[in-house]
Amino acid sequence: MHYFIIGDEDTVLGFSLVGIEGMIATSKEMAQESLRIALCDKENAIIIITQDVAALIREEVDRYIFSETFPLIVEIPNRASGGRSRDLRKLVNDAIGVAL
User: Fold this and answer.
1) b/e string for 18-55 if b means 16 or more Cβ within 10 A?
2) Which domains does the chain have, with CATH numbers?
């Protein structure tokens, strides 16, 4: 089982230093292609994607997160986000369609 990172150059480089493969994505097309490649490799157990890249393909990421169980897709903040992550309450509300 492997990890795979999709994000900006600095994030992908940082993860590569600990042996995690990944792809740099700076456009919607690159993000879509990177996600497709990551999903095709059945050895990838966890796909890590930066929030800014996930925002480029939000519909696809959310569709996959809420409908599939494997591999796990995890969004992380990148350096530009100042370390702030997505609101968990909003994520759950979107998933179940009910405001908590």
Assistant:
1) eeeebbbbeeeebbeebbeebeeeeebebbbbbbbbbe
2) 2-96 (3.40.50.10580)
Q: Which pTM does this prediction carry? A: 0.80
Between the CA of residue 75 and those of 26, 72, 87, what are the distances in Å?
Answer: 16, 10, 11
What pLDDT digit, counting tens, does each position of 41-93 carry?
A: 999 999 999 999 999 999 999 888 888 778 999 999 887 766 565 565 665 55
Closest CA to 21 of 43, 5, 39: 5
